[in-house]
Amino acid sequence: MPRPSSGQVIFQPMGRRADAQPKQNLLQLALHAGVGLEAPCGGKGLCGKCRVRPDGPASPPTPAETALLGQDTQAGMRLACQTSMPQGGPVWVPPESRQHRQVILTSGQSGELELDQTVRSYQVHVPPPRLEEPEAGRERLFAALAQSAGERLNPPPRLPLGLLRQLPLHLARDNGRLSVALRNGHEIVALGPAQDGPPLGLAVDLGTTTVVAYLCDLDSGQLLAVSSEMNPQVPYGDDVISRISCCAADPADLAKLSRAAVECINTLAQEACAQAGVDPSRILECVIVGNSAMHHIFLALDPASLAAAPYAPLVRGPVEVKARQAGLALGPEAWLYWLPLKAGFVGADIVAAALAVGADQIEEPTLLLDLGTNGEMVLAAHGRMMACSTAAGPALEGGHIGQGMRGAPGAVERVSMEPGAARASLRVIGNQRPVGFCGSGLVSLISCLLETGLLNSNGGFDQHRAKGLVRPGAQGPEFVAAPAADTGHGRDLALTSQDVAEVQLAKAAIRAGAEVLMAEMGIERLSRVLLAGAFGNYLDPWEASRLGLFPPVPVECIQGVGNAAGVGAVMSLLSRRQRLRAGDMARSMGYVELSGHPLFQDLFVDSMAFPPGQPGEEL
Ligand code: FES
Predict the structure, then answer these.
(1) Cα end-to-end span (Å), the chain
(2) Is the CB of 50 under 6 A from ligand 1?
(3) Which of 35, 46, 65, 77 to mutate to test the pocket of ligand 1 (most atoms within 8 A of CB)?
(4) Of 165, 229, 357, 421, which one's alpha carbon is 20 to 30 angstroms from that of 208?
(5) pTM of the model
(6) Using CA of residue 405, residue 410, residue 411, residue 417, what is the dihedral sign?
(7) Tens digit of pLDDT for each residue in 328-339?
(8) Arch. (CATH architecture) of 119-193
(9) Ligand 1 atom 1: residue of nearest CA
C-alpha cells in the first residue's frame, strides 16, 4: 500500500485520507474521510463489524477486542472503533466492513390517494389602483384572490413580509396577473408569475436506516419523482437506542445528528426536483414520518426520555412549523408537518402505515407489522386498533449475527436446500459471491434447516442428521452455508448456534407482542398479516410462518404492503382529510407497554421454540 505523508491515515482501497488524531479512533477518522464503515453498535466495540487491517503502528488490542476478532487477529485485523494510529499509516478496509448502500424499498401499495390539498394555487388578476379609490396593493391582492377562490376570505389571509416585499415586482411583471399559493385558506405561501407551474409537495419517510422522499404535484396529486438514500446517521449506530445514547453523551452530537438528517432530506429534495426538472423552491408543503427517535432527533429535541421508562416522548401530537425553522431548504414560506406519534416507540411511521392500509376500517382481525430493530405493530379489528412495540433487536436486520449484514449486494437473501442435499443453494443480492446474511436470508436459511430436520424446534443442530454439514465452531456447532472458496471474503460463510439463538429472541419478542395485543382485544385467531417495510417486503411468507414469527394464519393471508409508511406520508401530503384521519387514528389507537404487561414474559418464553407443525397450522 502507498505510504501516506506522516500523520495521515489513508483508507484503502478508497485512497481517502484523514489527519491522524491521538484521541480519535479509526472509525471516527473514517467518518471524517468520508469512508463508510459498518458500525451497527455505534462504535462501542460490541458488534465486531468495523474490521480493518492497519499497516503501521497502532494502539494495542484490548482483551475484549481480541475475543471478538477470534482468528482474524492473526491476520492483523482490528476493530476500527477500538484502534487508534497516532502516527498515521495505511489501513485496509475489507469488503465486508464497507458500508454498502442498502436496497431501498420505495414503493408501496397505495391506499386512498384522495385530493384535498393543503396548498392550492390560483391565477389572479390584480387591477391597478385608481385615483378615486387608491386601494393598497396587498388589499387589492386579497380581493382578487377571493374572486378567484370563489369565496370570501374572512379574515383575510396572512401575507408574510418576505412575500409582501416581492409583491410590487409580481404586480408589475404581467399587468397584475400572477399566481398565488394559498395554504389552508389563511396564509399565502408563494407568489409567482402567471401560469407558473403547480405547487409541489414532498413526503418523506425518515427511517432509521433509509430515507425515501416522494415529490408530488399538489394540484393533480401526481407523483413526479422518488429519491432515496441511506440515513447518514447510520455511522452513529444502527438502531435507535445507539442514536439516542449518542445524543445523550454530548448535546453537540444531537445537533450533528439532526443536521445530518436535515441535510439528507435537502439533498433528496434536490435530487427529486432534478429528476422532475423543477426547482426545490416550488416545494411548499412537506410531510415527514418516522419513528419517535428519528422525530425527536430531526427536530433537535432531546430524545433521552424515549430511552428510559416510562418512555414518554417530549411531544406526541403533530408538529407543524415553517420548514426553514427546521433547516429545510424548500420554498421560503413552505410548511413542515410531522405526523403524530403514538408513544415513545410507536412512531409516526406506524401511524402512517396504519393510515395507508386503512386500519381504522378493517373488520377481520389483521396484524400490521413493521419489522425492524423495534417490531412496531398494530392489531386492527372491527374499527378498533391497538399498538405496541417490541424490542426485537437488530438480528432480523443482520445485526448481532456473526456474518449478518444489511440487504445490500453480497447478502444472501434466499436459501433452498433439498433434504439430504450436500449443501445449500444461495440467492445473493447483486448476483455476487456471498459475504453475509441479510434478514430475509437468515429467515430463509433457518426455515430450510428446520424443514430438512438439520435444526430442531429448540434451535439446536441435530448432530445426527447434520453430519458433515455442521461442524464445531468457537460458539458451538455451526452450519457452513458456503465454503471459503465460494465466498466474497475468502472465509467460510457460517450460521452459528449463537446466530440461531439471536433470531429466536427476535421472533419470540415479535410473536409475544402480537399475542399480547390479541389477548387485550379478545381475539383468538388472526385473519390476515400485513408486512410493512423493507424487511417485511422481502420476507417469504411461508418461511416467516415456518419460524413462527407471528401467530398462526393461513400463508395466503400474509401479504407484503411495501413501504406503507411512505404511502401514508404521501396520503397525508395530498389530503387534509387523510392528515386529520391519521391524527384521529393516533389518538383512538390503544397502546400496550409490553415491558410491564403481565402476559408478556410468559408468552415470550413460550415463543422461543420454533413451531413443530406446518406454517399456519401450529398445534
Ligand atoms: S465493534 Fe466497532 S462499530 Fe461495533
Answers:
(1) 60
(2) yes
(3) 46
(4) 357
(5) 0.83
(6) negative
(7) 999 999 999 999
(8) Roll (3.10)
(9) 45
Ligand 1 centroid to residue 27 C-alpha, Å: 8
Domain 8-97 bears CATH identifier 3.10.20.30: yes
Q: What crossing angle do the helices spanning 497-521 and 439-451 adopt, rounded to 10°?
A: 100
Is 529:553 a contact under the CB 8 Å cutoff? yes
Cell of 425: 443453494
So what CATH class is 359-393+508-606? alpha beta
Judge contact between 408 and 100, C-beta under 8 A: yes
- Looking at residue 1, its pLDDT comes to 46
CATH for 200-338 (3.20.190.10, 1.20.1740.10, 3.30.420.480, 2.40.50.100) = 3.30.420.480
pLDDT at 39: 81
Which residue out of 79, 98, 239, 241 has the highest number of ligand 1 atoms within 8 Å of its CB and is therefore the one to mutate? 79
Quick check: helix, strand or coil at residue 540?
coil
Dist. CA 253–CA 251, nearest whole Å: 5
CA of 432 to the centre of ligand 1 (A): 25
Question: For residue range 167-217, what is the model confidence (pLDDT) as tens digits?
Answer: 999 999 899 999 999 999 999 999 999 777 899 999 999 998 889 999 999
The reply to whether ligand 1 has any atom less than 6 angstroms from the CB of 37 is: no
The answer to whether residue 2 scores a pLDDT higher than 60 is no
Domain boundary assignment for the chain: 8-97, 119-193, 200-338, 359-393+508-606, 395-503
